[in-house]
């Protein structure tokens, strides 16, 4: 009999009969049904849709805050009851309508597992509701992930009751295409869980895509504190054979991976790499500047469509078996792919098979070299994105991002508090030294005046002094010359006498917010690593305009003795790290410090371990950055920080450069000079001068 001819009373009875079989007490069923009828304006079609899926959702939803469905059974052990119920629901539902409930069952089971875990971990409640009338799915959450998910406030329409979070400003909503019927594939169930106490979150998304026909995706969003391995890969898998995994860190960093199986249709599947590449091009790049309409749902939808697009257009004629192997002893996981002749389907099309073995994390297999959204992996206060609009190179070569200098092996840096005397700190200060009437002892190094303004910029006076010609001092025995010829070193070629800044530090009485602490607070500018169009490789640019005197970043690397650097440079270079980043000599005191032993002279090498500064290119003249030695924890100038400040106003998207101080004629220098492409009029690279004059004379001849 068509449903329209069944009376509402009969439908009520049918519902009770079906749900009672799951073991739910009749009075509870009635209460929930009453609520649902109220909620859906007596729309029985909506309640019966997907075999009472809203009822099942209501059973699983136990949210007092929103009063959506009152908790209607004894809360003895919800996890067990839930699991039981869900299994029954699944079996009943399965009997009723096998096809449409495959996804429904897996959703319920997933929810159940999650719920069990939730109850064990003292998790807060699932808050989800599918609004059937408006074909919208609304999630209310205390999310901090607003950048990733389109923040829309809960809306009420046509008598539909939406969930309203206590934290309304943080709620967001997933909209479903209005053209799709409620029961069609394309169904998305989303459950949001919040860990009590530490505000960790999990977002569970089950997506069955019409586009992918028989392919199922499960997506799991999970707090990285629970899911990421130490090496930064995600370790969470529900069912590795058919999962999309989205893992997000508390700082908002998102990692996406997916694996497919069951491509039983005669779809010609492109390789995973091209799917990832296309998706990254589409989304990850744009996520650097978060778009207003950005949402996880869009990514998932786009992912389905991309897989379908690529599969349709693929001329792939091979069977690809992709098997990620997780070797925990190695840091870089790789996707192993083998290509064999494809079996031909009944329609004559080659079939594609993608196999992801159970319990092997799919994410690990395709770990990228760097996170294009944040090369610093959350180590800095700002995210540092990577963008290449020039060539196909997706990432800079491998290196480990470190936010602080680290001693490589033998470099001796004495950080002991005992070495900091009263004259080298301001233990009597309080709050902000800059606001005190008399400059503190820390300003002694800068002539009794602070180098910083209250806004955290270098004072114009300090900067002007720096940019005027610096005096040069000469070592008795120069470590650089000893590098070149240990037995008979040539005389020192001279080093600039650098002007130091002394920042307040831990032995000082002032606060961390003291105006004389700028470099130690880390990077605050929005910077980007980008591929230069002048063949200089990767470079750094600012995304915002920077005033003159702005602290940009420190040059961070391994602290090496000059001996160690020399030894490192002698080693045969292979492949990836063939190009050394330019090491920075900590030579401020070479001339004045008596008896500095070779093994004591230090330098910073960012080739293998470093920060964003390792990407800043050289410019012979008119560079926009100046490197300034900054002393914090050590009172002598044997070790110090190298900080970059803007030497003039820098426009947004302008490349940041500094003068490495290279002598392009010195072919014996420990680090081989490159052919300079800085493009400045006063380029010191003679090769360039020659080629420029050749060009001019060729032009003249013409
Ligand atoms: C500190 S790294 C800078 C980042 C580097 N461009 C990269 O892709 O990793 C120094 C290296 O960059 C390149 N480089 C820096 N400045 C350059 C310039 N003005 N002209 C040509 N190459 C430059 C050289 O290969 C040099 O060894």
From TrEMBL:
Q: Name one GO molecular function term.
A: zinc ion binding
What SUPFAM superfamilies has UniProt attached to this entry?
A: SET domain
Keyword presence, Methyltransferase: yes
One annotated Gene Ontology cellular component of this protein: chromosome
- The yes or no answer to whether the keyword S-adenosyl-L-methionine is present is no
Q: Which GO terms describe its biological process?
A: methylation
Keywords of the record: Chromosome, Methyltransferase, Transferase
Start and end residues of each Pre-SET domain: 425-522
Domain of life, source organism: Eukaryota
Pfam families named among the record's database cross-references: Pre-SET, SET, WIYLD
Q: Where is the SET domain?
A: 525-661
Main localization of the protein described in the UniProt heading: nucleus
- Segments spanning the bilayer are none
**Subcellular location per the Swiss-Prot or TrEMBL entry:** Chromosome
This chain belongs to the protein called: Histone-lysine N-methyltransferase
């Amino acid at each position: 009999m068509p449903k329209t001819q069944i009376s509402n009373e009969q439908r009520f009875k049918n519902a009770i009969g079906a749900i009672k079989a799951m073991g739910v007490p009749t009075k509870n069923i009635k209460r929930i049904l009453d609520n649902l009828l109220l909620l859906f304006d007596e729309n029985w079609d909506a309640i019966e849709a997907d075999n009472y899926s809203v009822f099942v959702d209501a059973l699983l939803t136990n949210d007092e805050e929103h009063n959506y469905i009152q908790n209607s059974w004894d809360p003895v052990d919800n996890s067990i009851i839930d699991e039981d119920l869900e299994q029954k629901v699944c079996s009943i539902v399965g009997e009723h309508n096998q096809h449409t409930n495959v996804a429904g069952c897996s959703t319920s089971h997933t929810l159940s597992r999650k719920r069990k875990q939730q109850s064990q971990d003292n998790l807060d409640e699932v808050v989800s509701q599918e609004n059937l009338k408006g074909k919208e799915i609304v999630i209310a959450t205390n999310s901090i992930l607003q950048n990733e998910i389109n923040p829309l406030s809960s809306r009420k329409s046509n008598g539909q009751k939406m969930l309203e979070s206590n934290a309304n400003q943080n709620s967001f909503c997933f909209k479903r295409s209005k053209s799709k019927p409620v029961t069609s594939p394309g169904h998305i169930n989303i459950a949001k869980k919040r860990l009590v106490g530490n505000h960790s979150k999990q977002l569970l998304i089950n997506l069955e895509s019409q586009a992918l026909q028989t392919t199922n995706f499960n997506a799991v969003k999970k707090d990285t504190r629970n899911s990421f391995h130490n090496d930064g890969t995600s370790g969470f898998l529900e069912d590795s054979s058919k999962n999309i995994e989205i893992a997000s860190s508390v700082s908002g960093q998102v990692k996406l991976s997916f694996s497919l199986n069951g491509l039983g249709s005669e779809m010609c599947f492109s390789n995973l790499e091209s799917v990832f590449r296309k998706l990254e091009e589409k989304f990850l790049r744009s996520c650097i500047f978060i778009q207003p309409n950005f949402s996880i749902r869009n990514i998932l939808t786009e992912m389905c469509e991309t897989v379908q697009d690529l599969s349709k257009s693929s001329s792939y004629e091979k069977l690809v078996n992709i098997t990620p192997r997780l070797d925990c002893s190695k840091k870089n996981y790789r996707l192993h792919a083998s290509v064999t002749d494809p079996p031909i389907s009944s329609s004559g099309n080659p079939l594609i098979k993608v196999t992801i073995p159970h319990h092997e994390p799919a994410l690990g297999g395709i770990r990228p070299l760097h996170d294009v959204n944040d090369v610093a992996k959350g180590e800095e206060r700002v995210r540092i994105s990577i963008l290449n609009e020039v060539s196909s190179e997706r990432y800079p070569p491998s290196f480990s991002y470190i936010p602080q200098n680290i001693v490589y092996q033998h470099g001796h840096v004495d950080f002991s508090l005992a070495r900091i005397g009263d004259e080298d700190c301001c233990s009597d200060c309080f709050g902000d030294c800059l606001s005190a009437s008399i400059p503190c002892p820390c300003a002694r190094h800068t002539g009794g005046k602070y180098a910083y303004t209250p806004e955290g910029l270098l004072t114009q006076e300090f900067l002007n002094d720096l940019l005027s010609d610096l005096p040069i001092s000469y070592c008795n025995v120069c470590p650089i010359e000893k590098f070149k010829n240990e037995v008979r070193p040539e005389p020192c070629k001279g080093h600039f006498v650098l002007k130091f800044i002394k920042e307040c530090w831990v032995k000082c009485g002032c606060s961390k917010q003291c105006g004389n602490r700028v470099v130690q607070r880390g990077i605050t500018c929005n910077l980007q690593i980008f591929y230069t169009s002048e063949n200089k490789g990767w470079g750094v640019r600012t995304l915002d305009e920077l005033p003159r005197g702005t602290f940009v970043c420190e040059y961070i690397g391994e602290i090496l003795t000059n001996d160690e650097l020399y030894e490192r440079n002698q080693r045969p270079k292979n492949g990836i790290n063939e190009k050394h980043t330019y090491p920075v000599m900590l030579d401020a005191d070479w001339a004045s410090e008596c008896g500095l032993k070779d093994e004591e002279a230090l330098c910073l090498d960012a080739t293998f371990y470093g920060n964003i500064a390792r990407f800043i290119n050289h410019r012979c003249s008119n560079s926009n950055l100046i490197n300034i030695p900054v002393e914090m924890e050590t009172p002598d100038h044997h070790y110090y920080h190298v900080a970059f400040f803007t030497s003039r106003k820098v426009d947004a998207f302008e490349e940041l450069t500094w003068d490495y101080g290279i002598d392009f004629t010195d072919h014996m220098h420990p680090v081989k000079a490159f052919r300079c492409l800085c493009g400045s009029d006063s380029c010191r690279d003679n090769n360039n001068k020659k080629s420029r004059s050749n060009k001019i004379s060729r032009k003249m001849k013409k």
